[in-house]
TrEMBL record, chains A, B:
The record marks Y140, K190 as: Important for catalysis. Residues 6-343 form the Isopropylmalate dehydrogenase-like domain. PANTHER family: D-MALATE DEHYDROGENASE [DECARBOXYLATING]. Homodimer. InterPro entries: ICDH/IPMDH, IsoCit/isopropylmalate_DH_CS, IsoPropMal-DH-like_dom, LeuB_actb. Its EC number is 1.1.1.85. This is 3-isopropylmalate dehydrogenase. It catalyses: (2R,3S)-3-isopropylmalate + NAD(+) = 4-methyl-2-oxopentanoate + CO2 + NADH. The lineage of its organism: Bacteria, Bacillati, Actinomycetota, Actinomycetes, Micrococcales.
Amino acid sequence: MPRTVELAVIPGDGIGPEVVAEALKVLDAVTADSDVTFAKTEYRLGAGRFLEDGEVLPEAELAEIKKADAILLGAVGGKPNDPRLAAANIERGLLLKLRFELDHYVNLRPTVVYPTVESPLRNPGEVDFVVVREGTEGPYVGNGGSIRIGTPHEIANEVSVNTAYGVERVVRFAFAQASARRKKLTLVHKTNVLVFAGKLWRRIVDEVSMEFPEVEVDYLHVDAATIFLVTDPARFDVIVTDNLFGDILTDLAGAISGGIGLAASGNINPDGTFPSMFEPVHGSAPDIAGQQKADPTAAILSVALLLTHLGLADAAGRVTAAVRQDLAARTGTRSTAEVGDSIVTLLS
Amino acid sequence: MPRTVELAVIPGDGIGPEVVAEALKVLDAVTADSDVTFAKTEYRLGAGRFLEDGEVLPEAELAEIKKADAILLGAVGGKPNDPRLAAANIERGLLLKLRFELDHYVNLRPTVVYPTVESPLRNPGEVDFVVVREGTEGPYVGNGGSIRIGTPHEIANEVSVNTAYGVERVVRFAFAQASARRKKLTLVHKTNVLVFAGKLWRRIVDEVSMEFPEVEVDYLHVDAATIFLVTDPARFDVIVTDNLFGDILTDLAGAISGGIGLAASGNINPDGTFPSMFEPVHGSAPDIAGQQKADPTAAILSVALLLTHLGLADAAGRVTAAVRQDLAARTGTRSTAEVGDSIVTLLS
Ligand SMILES: CC(C)[C@H](C(=O)O)[C@@H](O)C(=O)O
Ligand SMILES: CC(C)[C@H](C(=O)O)[C@@H](O)C(=O)O
């Protein structure tokens, strides 16, 4: 049965457009002979757009994006110290705004150490885990404030907000992932210090674990978790954690897997109320933009996550397999487009 | 001129007493022929004490400890899942209580990758940095709460409190450290998300940097900092950061340096209003307690920090040099006491 998927594409800034071009190339190739068509609408959003007309995320564009079936995003953000961007917070105003408005309560970030990719770790072992990071709560809610700003008496507060509703839905998703994988779930938090949020997370994990008796549950403080990520990353299967700890752990995970040039992610709304958004974990890297130096693999693996989310597991598997083959054959430096072309050629 | 230092000793739980015994052995040996005498008073505090008489930190003992010149602590905390400890939070009630009551606003944690110690990193490079972690504010203040506890409508908040007063004093300390070292300071925060606290930290770093024009200042988001800690840790000299980020980064730093069996720390009150407290970064490791399996090196290096803090730089240097020599000569497994004895023998 022919099916059309409305895909919103946000190439973004820096290397974003380059890696998105390769991701779309692979998406088109892998679905070419299928009955699924991707109808793409591009949205020019990011630091570049802001510098041109002062817009970060106009309401009308947000409303359109909300109607899409899925979103592919490259990377957003300008040069770190660009004074013209100091006032705008592109991260909060665009990226986090999308995650919150589209209720992306699951931020899914897999980590695999491919046998042919050199990890900075001497002996990483067989690493294959996913981090299920909460995406709509915690210290990311933007709930805080300052008084006596700019004076020696300034006080700045940041409030981490955690709800049973919000924690439960992401924890249930994580258990389902673990159940379909190696059946091991590790809650990461800092319950000995953040006692209020910590008690809530532990209670919910205990409760939901009753529904998944086959899943073994473990707990680690966030500081200890970073130790294990470098000394024994193979121990992990599914990690579930809050928004901020998940941010930290997934960058670290990306690094140990051989660089965030390989790290894909999905900002998922499992209920389907709003479109889910797929993006590489890396940033816009303005210093190498437009030079065909960026590795599009993370963006291409994000397409695999997108295909999985849309129920196109077969196509997703073909993309992942092609990426594996490409990684195994890598020698010398290639341009962004060359990597994309190679992966297209390797599609089974 | 003869001098007596009142030293409060808190051996604590698990491997705490074993590593403290070796640390004191080294302290006694290195000061044996000097005019400094350490008058030691032992305080039985920790999970063990709580299980015996229900006390975590009695007011009278806290008052006595406050009068000491310095504190040496082993490790506190019982078995992770001991139900008898569930109600008491030894970490908050004892360790954090001491840090807050004694106004330990600098948590100083050096990381060195010793040439003879195997790091989990393939190629760590020449790593020698210190983390200056804020110790009395941030998400550690215990400011938060829960409503509708135990129901599907529970909300749990955690408030990170940051003050210009608190940030400035730790930032100034960090700049002074950098100025006496390789003159590079990296602020680690998450200013793009935690905008209120982030603006405060950036402003204070900018302001204090005027007083230290010789120090080069860099900024990294906490997620990016974890990447660099595994891909290029040699780039760091002094890192200054908040209480929670510092907790995470120093465990990771300990891991990359070859294990937190080597990581020392000082909880410092630079003003001298209250005694500073020196402790290994590692925990009480109840699983190997009493078996002479623990490495006392972190506790012994904490003695070196203690000596430095007391102005006994020469003795501190002798301890560090002996530890270096011991690490260089390590072969096979040795008992906790054997490591201590070896380091004593190697004291110049
Ligand atoms: C850009 C930033 C707001 C974002 C985050 O903190 O979530 C990024 O680090 C990520 O992990 O996707
Ligand atoms: C035990 C715990 C409260 C403590 C902390 O979080 O500070 C520990 O992890 C540390 O780093 O000293």
